[in-house]
Design the sequence.
């Protein structure tokens, strides 16, 4: 089992991070080149100030019309995204690994807080899934890609939660957790999760058009 | 549920059995310096470990040193780890948690034996 | 649920589809997707999380509760998503439904932008679908007729060159009885203002030209209208997907203003034409901004009022409500100026519709939908029940809206729902209330 653990925390981790970082960079660069080549009449209007204006206004819960019209989703998605990023980055056990492998060390979340935040992520995934199954307008547009993205995100948290509480076989669960996390990282550039890479830019573009050309709010 | 049930029972039995067997001889690494523990203290049966690992020299673990540099010639057995390794270390010194993790995991990794992952030592 | 269950017979769509082959379809779709789209479409298609938040945006969706095929994402799901997934390998029947949906069930109003966290521009996606339909020759017959008119005459209504100048001289003649000395100066070089209108004005709303001339005259504006083509600022080709002709139209409009060496273009009270001139045509022609500055009538009237050039003999009796035209509100942020002008003109309250301003509901006529003609009239009237409720809730008798499409759309909604409300352009009210020379 140690060999498996060393493999998933060693070579496989390098591969996953490599796919995530290089893949994201490649997607961004090729998208940038495509935009320069094909979307010049949009690109010309990009504006940093109006981009930030739009992004900031959409980062405030219940500020944009979209958030106000969808309260359940707003609460869910803000809680989900905050926990989704904060737990993996600031979990004590993860930081201990950064220390072990690279000597890096930084602030951590208390374990009991991280535990609750993990449950928040899982609960949010249930809300998302519930909407896809029961809400007509969401069910109508749901595709396999959307379920895949949801599963890819839910699994590392589910297995992480079980491994932390040492339910079932700890070592198997931990390895499953690490592999699930690595799948998520590697999937970011190539699935619906790529909105992590692109959303800031689509928002920025809309903000620039509405700010600089149309002189109207876009939130 | 039917499929998982036997597994659950098995897991529960394994846990109980493991604890019953280990009860007598275990020692935990639970220095007071940490204050309230976030995770269960690492299990460490000193004598049994050293017997199994064929460790005769105390200095292998009970090293000396300062400013983040180990001195393998000065044996410090009898001095609690926390006396030198502070929870929040100053300067280049190694912190207490890091010292434990480094001491155990690096050796296990080098020898290819012994636990590496969190929950293998921090058992619930 | 979906477009296949509500197909409407249209001669233009039927004939276009009858001439299609799978090979032609695939070739055309691939050519547009690869040749004319890029990072925008790609990121929109990929990062739409299918969250369904946009369902709350669309007046079509809100007017058909329980039918998700009218939501913005639902409409993309039935059209562009399929084209991308199947790489253009779809059959002619699919094109019929796709065209009907894109031309008649989306006003390109961009309200959904306000509900999408990622900032997806569904109007752009639907415009691209329309572009493909145009290239396949599958366009609604009525809309295509206006596009043909644009291509042959540079105006939307088959107005002949002599009819245009005739109409202007006729209005000038009429107005001189009421305003002695009034002129509609044709081709006056170096004028401050170049006034352009949409072709329906000379064709059947000539009183709007009369009113504009009266306002210009009384405000002492140095203005002109072109005697040659270029005078029509409207643009159905932008909506049909015929971007080549759109480019010709916009070039003609700007160049006719440039030839007259005017300082600015003022556009009449029309929304879609403003979108075409201000936001779309210039880009197609490769101009970041306009070679001649362009302002909408609302802003022009606002300026005249600021300068004290519009003098009222009386105020218009309120209360009134305001229908915000998408293309000058979400398209140009004129909502406050529109209210300031209205407050100047009206005695009494402005009873707001909710939502309003940038968050307004479209009239369901814009985006070329009304130009798809009688076969699709009920699509937009029944598809905008929420607007009827909004209008009814204000309890007022007069609706002010500075947009031709809003007038057309609301007129039908008012009639269908028996709301008994009047529609006014700003120029209707200014003309009615302004000081006039003693007769």
Sequence:
């Amino acid at each position: 089992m140690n060999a498996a653990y060393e493999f998933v925390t060693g070579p496989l981790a390098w591969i996953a991070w490599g796919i995530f970082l290089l893949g994201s960079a490649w997607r961004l660069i090729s998208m940038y080149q495509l935009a320069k080549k094909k979307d010049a009449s949009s690109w010309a209007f990009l504006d940093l100030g109006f981009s930030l204006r739009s992004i900031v206004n959409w980062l405030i819960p219940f500020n944009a019309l979209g958030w106000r019209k969808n309260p359940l989703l707003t609460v869910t998605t803000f809680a989900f995204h905050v926990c989704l990023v904060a737990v993996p980055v600031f979990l004590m056990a993860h930081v201990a690994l950064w220390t072990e492998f690279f000597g890096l060390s930084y602030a951590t979340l208390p374990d009991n807080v991280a535990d609750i935040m993990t449950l928040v992520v899982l609960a949010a995934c249930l809300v998302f899934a519930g909407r896809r199954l029961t809400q007509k307008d969401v069910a109508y547009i749901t595709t396999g890609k959307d379920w895949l993205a949801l599963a890819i995100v839910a699994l590392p948290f589910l297995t992480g939660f079980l491994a932390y509480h040492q339910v079932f076989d700890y070592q198997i669960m931990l390895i499953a957790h690490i592999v699930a996390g690595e799948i998520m990282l590697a999937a970011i550039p190539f699935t619906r999760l790529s909105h992590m890479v692109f959303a800031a830019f689509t928002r920025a573009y809309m903000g620039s058009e509405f700010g600089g050309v149309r002189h109207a709010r876009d939130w | 549920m039917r499929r998982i049930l036997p597994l659950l029972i098995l897991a529960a039995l394994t846990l109980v059995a493991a604890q019953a067997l280990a009860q007598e001889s275990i020692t935990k690494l639970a220095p007071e310096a940490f204050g309230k523990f976030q995770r269960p203290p690492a299990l460490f049966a000193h004598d049994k470990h050293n017997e199994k690992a064929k460790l005769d020299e105390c200095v292998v673990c009970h090293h000396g040193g300062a400013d983040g540099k180990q001195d393998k010639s000065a044996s410090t057995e009898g001095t609690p780890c926390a006396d030198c390794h502070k929870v929040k270390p100053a300067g280049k010194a190694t912190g207490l948690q890091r010292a434990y993790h480094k001491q155990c995991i690096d050796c296990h990794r080098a020898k290819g034996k012994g636990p590496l992952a969190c929950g293998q030592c921090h058992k619930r | 649920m979906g477009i296949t269950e509500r197909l409407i017979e249209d001669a233009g769509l039927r004939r276009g589809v009858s001439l299609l082959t799978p090979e032609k379809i695939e070739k055309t779709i691939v050519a547009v997707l690869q040749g004319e789209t890029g990072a925008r479409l790609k990121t929109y298609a990929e990062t739409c999380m299918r969250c369904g938040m946009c369902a709350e945006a669309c007046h079509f969706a809100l007017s058909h509760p329980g039918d998700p095929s009218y939501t913005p994402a639902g409409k993309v799901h039935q059209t562009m998503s399929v084209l991308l997934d199947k790489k253009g390998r779809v059959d002619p029947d699919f094109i019929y439904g796709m065209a009907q949906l894109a031309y008649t069930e989306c006003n390109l109003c961009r309200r959904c932008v306000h509900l999408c966290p990622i900032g997806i521009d569904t109007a752009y996606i639907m415009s691209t679908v329309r572009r493909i339909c145009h290239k396949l020759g599958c366009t609604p017959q009525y809309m295509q007729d206006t596009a043909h008119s644009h291509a042959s005459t540079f105006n939307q209504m088959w107005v002949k060159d002599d009819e245009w100048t005739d109409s202007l001289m006729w209005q000038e003649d009429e107005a001189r009885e009421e305003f002695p000395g009034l002129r509609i100066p044709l081709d006056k070089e170096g004028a401050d203002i170049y006034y352009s209108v949409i072709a329906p004005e000379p064709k059947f709303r000539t009183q709007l030209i009369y009113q504009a001339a009266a306002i210009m005259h009384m405000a002492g504006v140095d203005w002109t209208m072109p005697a040659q083509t270029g005078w029509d600022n409207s643009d159905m080709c932008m909506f049909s997907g015929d971007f080549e002709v759109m480019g010709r139209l916009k070039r003609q409009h700007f160049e006719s203003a440039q030839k007259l060496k005017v300082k600015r273009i003022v556009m009449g009270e029309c929304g879609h034409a403003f979108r075409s001139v201000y936001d779309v045509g210039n880009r197609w022609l490769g101009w970041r901004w306009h070679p001649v500055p362009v302002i909408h009538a609302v802003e022009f009237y606002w300026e005249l009022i600021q300068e004290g050039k519009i003098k009222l003999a009386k105020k218009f009796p309120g209360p009134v409500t305001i229908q915000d035209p998408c293309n000058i509100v979400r398209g140009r942020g004129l909502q406050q100026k529109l209210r300031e002008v209205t407050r100047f003109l009206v005695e009494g309250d402005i009873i707001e519709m909710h939502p309003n301003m940038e968050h307004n509901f479209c009239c369901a006529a814009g985006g070329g939908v009304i130009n798809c003609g009688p076969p699709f009239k009920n699509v937009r009237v029944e598809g905008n029940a929420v607007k009827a409720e909004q209008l009814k809730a204000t309890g007022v008798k007069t609706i002010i809206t500075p947009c031709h499409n809003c007038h057309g759309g609301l007129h039908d909604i008012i009639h269908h729902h028996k709301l008994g409300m009047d529609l006014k352009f700003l120029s209707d009210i200014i003309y009615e209330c302004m000081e006039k020379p003693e007769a």
User: Anything to note?
Assistant: The radius of gyration of chain B is 17 Å. Chain B is about 40% helix and 10% strand.
